[in-house]
């Protein structure tokens, strides 16, 4: 499976994507996208992983 750069069309490889909506699900989030170069429409998926806690001032708690 080819790994493409983020925000790159999987069909024509251009970086002209329009993001129209997003939706969260149990393990991640996806964005509905349309390529402004070739017209491809689909979803760009992301897996969410825990990174850290911060307080309300943005200080990372270890």
Automatic annotation (TrEMBL):
Protein's name in the database: Uncharacterized protein
Which species expresses this protein natively?
Answer: marine sediment metagenome
